[in-house]
Amino acid sequence: MQQLALSVITLLLLVHGHEGSAVGDPGMKRDGLRVAFEAWNFCNEVGFEAPHMGSPRAADCFDVSSKYSKAHIMLNHSPHIDDQSNTATSGYSLAHKVSDSDNELGIGKPKPGIISELALHNPDLYAVEKELYLGSLCQVPDKPNPWSFWMVMLKNGNYDTKSGLCPQNGKKIPPFSQPGLFPCFGNGCMNPPTLNHGKTELLGDGQTMRGWFNGTYELEADLGNGLDGISYYEVVWEKRVGVGGWVFKHKLKTSAKYPWLMLYLRADATKGFSGGYHYDTRGMLKTLPESPNFKVRLTLNIKQGGGPKSQFYLVDIGSCWKNNGQPCDGDVTTDVTRYSEMIINPETAIWCNPKSLHNCPPYHTFRNGTRVHRTDQGRFPYEAYHVYCAPGNAKHLELPVGTCDAYSNPQAQEILQLLPHPVWGEYGYPTRMGDGWVGDPRTWELDVGGLSTRLYFYQDPGTTPARRIWTSVDVGTEIYKEDEAIAEWDLSDFDVLIT
Fold first, then answer.
1. Which residues have C-beta within 8 Å of that of residue 124, sequence separation ≥ 6?
2. How high is the mean pLDDT of the chain?
3. Reported pTM
4. Are 478 and 262 spatial neighbours (Cβ–Cβ below 8 Å)?
5. Which residues on neighbouring strands pair with residue 20, listed in sequence order?
6. Where does the record place the DUF7705 domain (predicted)?
7. Strand partners, 296
8. What are the pLDDT digits (tens) for 20-68?
9. Which residues pair with 112 in a beta bridge?
10. CA distance 371 to 369
């Protein structure tokens, strides 16, 4: 009888599946929040720090406790905040894990046992070691691994080719002149932003928690004078104690000097390389999702789209493996960052078409396994792709081909950008341009693992297929070279489910 019961349970698991969250804070429901901030320059490094801002890494991590019983809280009709203790008369208090001095750490500021001598005066290395330190302060014990925080990522698309700051497909190159290819107003255009931090606090009702990061790339700007003519970013998080989940409210604005900006909320690996990195990181993914066995669930409310150049990613997944299928090992000359991104801005152009085959992947694989070549005009779904670009260090590419920007990651990269189309409907993705856009907030459950196992990624002929293990899952926008564009969106219920 016991054996029969076990067989039934096994059968049910096979039929219905078993889902467990890969993130430390499933669905953003946990009262005690863990959130961090990182700012990158064009090639995912720091280059140099903004004056008086420290290294562009920060964290806001805290636990919530209650001094009183639930009955006492229910009876208390007039809660208020004690500003010194951040404790409401309702009995809640926030115990912060990261101090202001921790967040202000930057080059030249020693931290024995934390910041190495090698990193002390190197902005790139300092940011790496500071992130690991902040991660240790925020770390939450869990199974199968501890985790640290959600990551707010901000990136500046300006590139001064005369600076010598960025490698070419992972290889160091001297400064060069290439006017017009990348935005840059001149010397200093790759600067990090200012960072202002409103540490999470309880508001006057004694139950609502709110915190924020914001700033601008115009280092001399006064945000009190308004946002006209300057760039701006903002992320505000808010939740009621014991009720619902966190809502992350994002805003991103470009300017004439900084027309190419990116802002995402990421669930990154808790150790090892996250997507776009070549060094150890900290994040939220206590289990790394692997194709085809994971889904992503989230609620997205886009309030302003950011104009026609806003490549808003409903979800973006990032990983790293070599062209021979082996995992990345930190050798930036042979590692390749791989990205797949679903763009839901209905104003996005369809660059992949029969007359521009170099913008299309060599083939498309349908859900049933049928594979069609991009030259098959009767069956290839051109409208399902915005653009495909191949790794710049690949040696056996099928022509015609477009290679990815060689400078915007520490190593070569491969990018596959998708658009809403009926072929993605079986995976829960939008099927029409405009689905989920401004005025159409939705909760999505996306079979990201199932879709990502069917996507084309380059690999050297005759090599063992790479395991598609994804070290970053994120949502947000990349405003690509547009002045004075504004995007605004709310993200909540974010979860990565292992199926």
1. 45, 46, 47
2. 92
3. 0.92
4. yes
5. 498
6. 21-498
7. 446, 496
8. 999 999 999 999 999 999 999 999 999 999 999 999 999 999 999 987 5
9. none
10. 6
